[in-house]
Amino acid sequence: MGIMNFMRKAFIGLATPALAFLILASVILMSLNLAFHTPQKPKQWIQKSNIYSHAVNALIDQVSKDTTSSNTGLSMSQPEVQTAFKKAVTPQFLQSTAESVIDGSYEWLQGKVAKPSYDIDLTPVKTAFADALEAEARNRLATLPVCSYYNLPTTADPFSVTCNPPSAITNQQIAQLRSDILSGNGFIVPTAITADTTSLGTDTSSKTSTTDPSTAPDKPAQPWYKNAQQLPFLYALASWGPWVTAVLALLVAVGLFFAAKTKRFGTRIISSSVLSAGLLLGLSAGVALFVSHQFGDKVAQSADTTSTNLQQPMIAILRSAVSYIARVQLWWGVGLAVVGLAGLLLLFLTRPKPGKTTASLDNPKNPSTK
Hints:
mainly alpha; two-stranded antiparallel ribbon
């Protein structure tokens, strides 16, 4: 009997905090699943952040740091080139591209396909860029004085000449620009964006001691999904996480109820654990909501679409995700706290009173007296 009593007390001592932990884990995993199990909410948060408008200017700013684009002589620092680029690479195009990548990646995570399934054809974008660039070139040339026979420009670049050269030279130069852009020699190099053409960098492991590391070319990196083969397994594991922890919490609660000396004591332990979990969830969720809104109000005002800084929209995305997850956890925390309080209140209202015959919670048919 002594050993059994010790084992019972040890089980109660270990299972009581374990129950609260399992309840917390189940709710946290469930809130994360509600947020990220499907691509709908991430796409909504990204669109709401206005990051696509920022991304166009960020792309122009990044490319402008290069002196010229390969083989064309074009420079993104030229206002006309920037205007043409904005007409081709629009926020709407970036949004459709990003959402196609997200949808295709989720199909891979869910085990529906062997690799992320997205294929974005860039040919229409190249054509739009070439058309817009030609229009900008002709508009600029139309504002310039005609070049004299004795003062022909040394360059036929329509974005740098100071006078309008003969139409034959102009047409030839513009046709060459169009050919370069459509063939991938301009700023938009690939013809399509697929999982196999998308990488996270370059592989420098190909640089050996037989070559100068500073001059040896970088080996193209592997497609990003080949370096993340465990993600589908982790996604499936996370999908089952809330159910597994909920079942474990239920089993622990049943074990506590029957391990307790009396049913009243078992009910009190379970109610206290549920109440503790609810209060912790509510408190942590409330703090997360407060911090996200206070911090977000200061730095996530991303209405300025001319900014090239992606920090503001990224913070706005994070704020949306944290706010949604925290609200889910807050409501669950309130619900758990109410359930825990209700259990303790029931025990208080049905407690045995001195000098009166009451029905025992352990055996309602057999009244007990004190």
